[in-house]
Amino acid sequence: MAGIISRFSEVDTLFSAAVGLLSRGEIAQAAVILTDINNRFDTHERAWCEMGNILQYHLEDHAAAAELYRKAMQLNPSYAPAYLGYADVLFAQEKFAEANAIINQALEVQGVRKDIALYKSGLIMESQGRYDEAVETYRSALLISFSDDEIIKCEKGIARCNTK
User: Fold this and answer.
1) pLDDT of residue 9
2) CA of residue 159 relative to chain centroid, distance
3) Cα(49)–Cα(83) distance, integer angstroms
4) Three-class HEC string of the chain
5) Neighbours of 54 (CB within 10 A)
6) Stretch 144-164: mean pLDDT, rounded?
7) Residue 160 C-alpha from the chain's centroid
C-alpha cells in the first residue's frame, strides 16, 4: 500500500482532498484547496475545471467559470470534462451556436462521454425549437449510452419534444 500512496504527488493529494470535500457537499472548503492548487500548480487542468464547476453550478458565475474551463482546455486539449462544462456555461448564456461548436469539438476528443455530449446537443436543438433534430440527437445519445440516468434523460427529452 505504501508504494501506491508514494506515487501521488502533493498536487494529487490536494486534488483528491478537494474532490472528497466536494462529494460531501463541503464546497467552500474544496474551493480553498482548489484555489491553492491553482496558485501553486497552475498547470493542473483538473483543478481549473473543478473550480469552474464550483463557479458555475454553485455560485452561478458563468463568466468566471467559462474562463476557467477555457484555461483547462488550453492546458490539456484532451481533458474531456472541461469541454462539457464549458458547453453548459455557453448554453446557460444562450450562446447556442458557440455551445454547439464546443460540443462538436468535444465529440472529437477521446474520453468525452459521447452520450452526454449528444444529449447536450439535443438540448440546444430543443431550446431553438428544432424538435425533430433534437429527437434524432436524443435517440443517437440513447443508443450509445450505458448509463441508466442518461438514457432516462434522453427519453424525457424525446417525450418533451414530442409534446411540443
Assistant:
1) 87
2) 24
3) 9
4) CHHHHHCCCHHHHHHHHHHHHHHCCCHHHHHHHHHHHHHHCCCCHHHHHHHHHHHHHHCCCHHHHHHHHHHHHHHCCCCHHHHHHHHHHHHHCCCHHHHHHHHHHHHCCCCCCHHHHHHHHHHHHHHCCCHHHHHHHHHHHHHHCCCHHHHHHHHHHHHHHHHC
5) 21
6) 97
7) 23
Contact 19, 50 (CB under 8 A): yes
Dig out the grid coordinates for 2 from the structure: 505504501
Give the list of residues 6+ apart from residue 43 with CB closer than 8 angstroms, or none.
75
124 pLDDT higher than 60: yes
Domain locations in the chain?
A: 9-99, 113-164
Which three cell numbers, joined as nine digits, stand for 79?
A: 481533458
75 CB-side CA count, 13 A: 19
Residues 46, 40: Cα–Cα separation, whole Å: 14
Rounded to two decimals, the pTM is: 0.88
Give the residue carrying C-alpha cell 468525452. 112
pLDDT of residue 111: 87
Overall fold of domain 9-99: 1.25.40
